Prior knowledge:
Blueprint: H1 22-30, H2 34-43, E1 56-60, H3 69-83, E2 101-107, H4 110-124, E3 131-137, H5 145-161, H6 163-167, E4 171-175, E5 178-179, H7 183-190, E6 196-200, E7 203-204, E8 211-215, E9 223-227, E10 233-238, E11 244-249, E12 257-261, E13 267-272, E14 296-300, H8 317-320, E15 325-329, H9 341-346, E16 352-356, E17 390-394, H10 399-411
Parallel strand pairs: 1-2, 2-3, 3-4, 4-6, 5-7, 6-9, 8-10, 9-11, 10-12, 11-13, 13-14, 14-15, 15-16, 16-17
Amino acid sequence: MESPPLKLNVARDEDRISDLPDELLLRILARLDLRDAVRAGAASTRWRHLPHQLSVLLLGVSRFRRATLVESMDAFAAALLSVCPPAERSCECQRSHAIKALALCFYLSAPHLSSIGRALEDVVSRGKTKWIEFRISPPPGDNTAPELTEFGQQFMSFCRAYQVAFRWLTSLTLENLAFGDSDVTDLISNCVKLESLALRACRMVNFEHSVLKIDTPCSGLQELNLVHFVCKRIQLISVPKLRQASCLIWRFENPPVRLDYVPDLRHVAIACLRTHPKAPFKLSECLSRSALNLSELHLNFFHQMIWIQPEHPKQLTAIFRNLSNASLSGIFPECDLSWTLFILEAAPALQKFGLSRTRHACANAWDNNAEKTNVVWDPSKDLKHMNLKSLMIDGFEEEDKVAAYIWLVVER
């Protein structure tokens, strides 16, 4: 629901707020949505110059609801240009203060991309911007595969056309786009300041055969979030600054993710919904031996097949030597739990260990589609774990199974 227009009494003798100094008025505007801040500037000559002095700007197209998408993007672009006027525009409202942080959420609308790109290049040309965040998606609707490919190409063209702006980008979220084989690597390589990348409901153009390969040895990317990314496999060949990787995958081969050179990696989360019989894979085939500082591991099975194969601790000790927090969620009710101890055996520094069968809404539709096979594993009787401080078990109704599992852990 669109918020009501900001009401200001523009008569000076009746508008006591306007008597405040600029510094205080800017603090007031900083707490408003940018759309309302722009309205304030339009409503009063006293406030007119203030929106152009804001150092933090947050602007989303969802705040400009009009009869058509084009009209919404018209309003969005107009608001952006009103506070980020092009350098060639000479007027009394010309921005005199550098923008330190800018966050924009908008649609891939071809008629508006050039004005947005030029405004952004003018912002970064001042050289004082510390944070730029984009969230970009196609216009709402049920887009076909060819349309997703077209939108993906449109975005990559936008990125190449305004390379100066994208070099300053620090955080990027993309939704519902299809990428060519080298597009994601090219994107990360061109965005030299990019720290966080999220790809949601995206895919490779030829997703049944294409592997998403990310090979960016010179990038500063620290966080990668892939949600419902459709491809054959995800392979991080070289992402040396990456600290956090999260992958939620529906369609995949074994192993679904391969982490090669990621020496700074601290946090890994992998969620896979497997509904068709396929041999499980070993974590040692997936995780990197270069990630010597891995401290958190979270796996989600969505109450379907257990897709990992327990393995001898010797295969994982080098990878898990600094692992302090691990959790396994979405374990189907009939599954035995003793197999999970292979992680405890391989992680001598583990302090927190959690098991959960809490239901995720995404799994409901697949409840009866997968043939679930119990996992068999004989834990070592000689294991002595001295560092475990917390064991959390949530959602299991079988008291005897839980009690037996707790006893297995306590024994160690």
